[in-house]
Amino acid sequence: MFEFITDEEERGQVGIGTLIVFIAMVLVAAIAAGVLINTAGFLQSKSQETGQQSSKQVSDRVQEVATVGNVSNNAVDFVNVTVTQGAGSGEIDLENTTVTWIGPSGTYQLIAHSDFDNTSDATGDVFTYDVVKDTDTSAPVLNDNDDRLQYIFDVSDFTGGQELAEGDEVTIKINTMAGATTSIRFTVPESLGQKEAVEL
């Protein structure tokens, strides 16, 4: 026996098929929209984080206030660099800064050591620091534009006894934990004479 399909049944089957396709399209679109929203949120958070890090690399740096050399036997044996926060900078911890000293005797990577009187227990070449001005006792953290801390470099300690002579040129690069770098360049005066200290 043959079954005859009427026009109404045929239209119903076509309508159900169309409905299934429509539902499938809606589900696919909903899943795609969810993926896009999640991806957009992830990209936004990553871009904000990257922007903040980039900003810190530019702004979270120290600013030189003064650089002075201590003169002994017509040579500079200590260099003291007084620093403050750079413009727009956040908190800077001097203990988490690293220093590259580029001088006539070579290049040295220096790390902070808090005990000025005893550097014998330190590993590697070191610089020390001292407080010049700190109203809220936050040292060694610079957290106010009025704070002044001092990097102290015992030149002969990390150069194997070689002090800075007249006319020597030095570059000091101070790198903060955020990745910002401050470069300080100076030349020892051509005549130290009977001076006890010189501005560099």
Automatic annotation (TrEMBL):
InterPro entries: Flagellin/pilin_N_arc (IPR013373), Flagellin_arc-type (IPR002774)
A GO CC annotation given for this chain: archaeal-type flagellum
Keyword Transcription: no
Keywords annotated in UniProt: Archaeal flagellum, Membrane, Transmembrane, Transmembrane helix
Compartments in which it is found: Archaeal flagellum
Family assignment from sequence similarity: Belongs to the archaeal flagellin family.
Database matches in NCBIfam families: arch_flag_Nterm
Function field: Flagellin is the subunit protein which polymerizes to form the filaments of archaeal flagella.
Name of protein: Flagellin
Organism, scientific name: Halobaculum litoreum
